[in-house]
């Protein structure tokens, strides 16, 4: 089973308008509400590949109930820890070829709620063979928190795939035990290493050998339409992908993480896992919906990905 962790989920609202008029009333007819948060995208895409998934994290209030209800409807198991605060809304307004977003920061979490979650997380580990951790940490949770989860999973010999950014990523890389795998994009690497993106892109192998990454077995640097550059233990891979018609790349990184988790859980060879990961990212980019793929196209898409050592 793949256990996905989403500490700050949301109910994402999408409003589609012909035109956004400022300082006036905008009436909207095309509305979509979905359980959101990077970890929930991972859950959906892993589930669509036929893998058993359990989603965990923190939820509260009516929107928390909405998140759980939607996962149940989609056939995805979940074990969330309940909090007193209320799960947030994130609003995206699609208008005139633009996407204007309004993101609530989410509830504040108490120390007791953090400890209750850790207890819940530990009860889920014996049935898990891969753990994914995605996204930012909510207010009130220490930036070193992900290391606690990594330590618990490591005690059970379960690989942890960590997809976060900023302080949460920097903290997780500065402590032991390290995550098994990280999946930064170039801009996340640039802010982590405080170096120019182009400079990193031109010397990726060198940067990925910095002491900061010591102990991280697998680093997948996703490069959008350019595929990925990967450090897999002591080997390096350049992964190239075909040119595709993109509808919306939002969530492609999460779909990629889902592909990596599914491949690791099935103990596939590195080349196969990387093809699966790229294919999942591309199939997500070919859909309007975030964190959704057309799974029947997986095998064909994987055959078009090239992995060079
Ligand atoms: P993130 O969303 O984390 O920034 P990327 O944008 O690198 O991640 O996307 C992850 C993967 O999704 C890519 O490695 C690629 O396989 C696929 N992908 C994303 N954007 C595109 C695109 N424009 N064309 C083709 N594939 C894409």
From TrEMBL:
<comment type="similarity">
    <text>Belongs to the carbohydrate kinase pfkB family.</text>
</comment>
<dbReference type="GO" id="GO:0005524">
    <property type="term" value="F:ATP binding"/>
</dbReference>
<keyword id="KW-0547">Nucleotide-binding</keyword>
<keyword id="KW-0808">Transferase</keyword>
<dbReference type="InterPro" id="IPR002173">
    <property type="entry name" value="Carboh/pur_kinase_PfkB_CS"/>
</dbReference>
<comment type="similarity">
    <text>Belongs to the carbohydrate kinase PfkB family. LacC subfamily.</text>
</comment>
<protein>
    <recommendedName>
        <fullName>Tagatose-6-phosphate kinase</fullName>
        <ecNumber>2.7.1.144</ecNumber>
    </recommendedName>
</protein>
<dbReference type="GO" id="GO:2001059">
    <property type="term" value="P:D-tagatose 6-phosphate catabolic process"/>
</dbReference>
<dbReference type="InterPro" id="IPR011611">
    <property type="entry name" value="PfkB_dom"/>
</dbReference>
<keyword id="KW-0067">ATP-binding</keyword>
<dbReference type="Pfam" id="PF00294">
    <property type="entry name" value="PfkB"/>
</dbReference>
<dbReference type="InterPro" id="IPR029056">
    <property type="entry name" value="Ribokinase-like"/>
</dbReference>
<comment type="pathway">
    <text>Carbohydrate metabolism; D-tagatose 6-phosphate degradation; D-glyceraldehyde 3-phosphate and glycerone phosphate from D-tagatose 6-phosphate: step 1/2.</text>
</comment>
<feature type="domain" description="Carbohydrate kinase PfkB">
    <location>
        <begin position="6"/>
        <end position="291"/>
    </location>
</feature>
<dbReference type="GO" id="GO:0016052">
    <property type="term" value="P:carbohydrate catabolic process"/>
</dbReference>
<keyword id="KW-0418">Kinase</keyword>
<dbReference type="GO" id="GO:0005829">
    <property type="term" value="C:cytosol"/>
</dbReference>
<keyword id="KW-0423">Lactose metabolism</keyword>
<dbReference type="GO" id="GO:0008443">
    <property type="term" value="F:phosphofructokinase activity"/>
</dbReference>
<dbReference type="InterPro" id="IPR017583">
    <property type="entry name" value="Tagatose/fructose_Pkinase"/>
</dbReference>
<dbReference type="GO" id="GO:0005988">
    <property type="term" value="P:lactose metabolic process"/>
</dbReference>
<dbReference type="GO" id="GO:0009024">
    <property type="term" value="F:tagatose-6-phosphate kinase activity"/>
</dbReference>
<dbReference type="InterPro" id="IPR002139">
    <property type="entry name" value="Ribo/fructo_kinase"/>
</dbReference>
<dbReference type="GO" id="GO:0044281">
    <property type="term" value="P:small molecule metabolic process"/>
</dbReference>
């Amino acid at each position: 089973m793949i256990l996905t962790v989403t500490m700050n989920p949301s109910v994402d609202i999408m409003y589609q308008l012909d035109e956004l008029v400022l300082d006036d009333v905008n009436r909207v007819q095309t509305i979509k509400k979905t359980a959101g948060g990077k970890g929930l995208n991972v859950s959906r895409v892993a589930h669509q590949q036929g893998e058993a998934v359990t989603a965990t994290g923190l939820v509260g209030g009516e929107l928390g109930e909405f998140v759980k209800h939607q996962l149940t409807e989609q056939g995805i198991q979940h074990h969330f820890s309940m909090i007193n605060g209320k799960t947030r809304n994130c609003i995206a307004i699609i208008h005139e070829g633009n996407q204007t977003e309004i993101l609530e920061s989410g509830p504040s979490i108490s120390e007791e709620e953090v400890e209750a979650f850790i207890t819940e997380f530990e009860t889920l580990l014996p049935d898990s063979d891969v753990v994914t951790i995605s996204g930012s940490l909510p207010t009130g949770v220490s930036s070193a928190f992900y290391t606690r989860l990594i330590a618990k999973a490591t005690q059970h010999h379960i690989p942890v795939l960590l997809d976060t950014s900023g302080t949460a990523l920097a903290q997780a890389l500065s402590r032991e035990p390290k995550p098994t795998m990280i999946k930064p994009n170039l801009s996340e690497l640039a802010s982590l290493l405080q170096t120019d993106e182009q400079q990193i892109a031109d010397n990726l192998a060198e940067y990925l050998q910095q002491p900061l990454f010591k102990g991280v077995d697998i680093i997948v640097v996703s490069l959008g339409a350019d595929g990925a550059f990967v450090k897999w233990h002591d080997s390096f891979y350049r992964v190239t992908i075909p040119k595709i018609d993109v509808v919306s790349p939002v969530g492609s990184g999460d779909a990629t993480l889902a592909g990596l988790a599914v491949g690791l859980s099935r103990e596939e060879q590195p080349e196969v896992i990387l093809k699966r990961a790229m294919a999942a990212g591309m199939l997500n980019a070919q859909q309007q919906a975030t964190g959704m793929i057309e799974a029947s196209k997986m095998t064909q898409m994987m055959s078009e990905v090239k992995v060079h050592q």
